[in-house]
Here is the input.
Amino acid sequence: SMAQKKKIAYFYDGDMGHYYYGPGHPMKPHRLKLAHHLILSYGLYRKLEVYRPHRAEAEEMTRFHSPEYIDFLRRITPDANSLLHQISLGSRSSTNQALTQQMQKFNVGEYTDCPVFDGLYEFCSMYTGASIDGACKLNARACDIAINWSGGLHHAKKSEASGFCYVNDIVIACLELLKHHPRVLYIDIDIHHGDGVEEAFYLTDRVMTVSFHKYGDFFPGTGDLKDVGVRAGKYYSVNCPLREGMDDHAYNQIFKPVIQKVMDIFDPGAIVLQCGADSLTGDRLGCFNLTLNGHSECVKFVKSFGKPTLVLGGGGYTIRNVARCWTYETAVLLDQPAVADEIPFNDYYEYYGPDYKLHLTPAPMENLNTRDTLDHCRTMILENLRMIKGAPSVQFQEVPPDFVTQDKGEDDSKAADAEKRQLDVSKTADGGGERSAHPAEFYDGDGDNMEASS
Here is the structure.
């Protein structure tokens, strides 16, 4: 084609797939190893620039998360966890009580869906480092698209783990992109609402979050059509609540017009696309009926705008299908959608039986999304988007330095000061919202916190 070939960076660490959430837990990092091997066996890696990501440091994670929370993640181990249960109730040692209280406060450990497992902190620093590296490469214009299938953990909050997510690599990558781009667009096609990312940017117009998700009696319970952001961020959160049985045709009937309008109105400098594969047919936790065609059509459509794009993973609990999905989407990003349907032989070949085919067949289930429900959603979303007056602009002072912290030798205090310099949030429409500011609003100054405390 006449179009210039896109440069695609791909981030992968061979240790990624060795982490284990524990027996019976639906989140299996092993799926990343399956996906990587399938990408290798299709020969796609030859057209990618493959990088081993750096491990994010605590200072990088505290750009969004609270220092106490990150410190807790760094210190908690399965041993400390099991120790708690061996100690007789008589001896209430203060460290113990502190640890138990912290585990409850941060929503980690027993009775939560975020267990303490071996290497938890390394796991987080690995997938987060990869998303930061992707954002830095895009900022430096060293690639057009950056892929990190280990990232996309969209439920983590400023001070708590949620829904299998501990560190929100997406929010941290968006903050990195905001150093070079006045506006960043976040799109989420996971079956679950992208609540952690939406909440982080609920009060700003510099990041628009757009989430398509199952809504109603489904985790995390947020993401109503009516949730549109507040204050400066009013109308910059877009939610498309869907019902079960969503199929390829219906999905694209709503995805494309919404994203087209968002692009026209918001005009982002960069895009972050979360490609959770739990929206596929046959997912262990999901209830949609998408095939690789419908899911990857979203990726293809987003790519067609030619913006610097960070492509991330996310949910996905039938791991053979997760690997199929992210392999096919890697091919689509490389403009090779016609890869063979026969799964090539690889180390995990037996996972793909009995058919050993790449593509999925939809299940014979009813789509509860009717033309009427989808029309209603689309109409409401497009009306909300019309409330935005032109793309907000931002005055930049000097660009803060990149995240990556290799050359520690230099003047550390100077670096630390630079890290602290906060981004300017543009002062636009004060959307008089009724929801109080969440502590995850992390821009200091601009009279923002003043309003919050009134």
About this structure: Strands lie at 8-11, 49-51, 145-148, 184-188, 207-214, 237-242, 270-274, 309-312. DSSP finds 14 helices and eight strands in the chain. The longest strand covers residues 207-214.
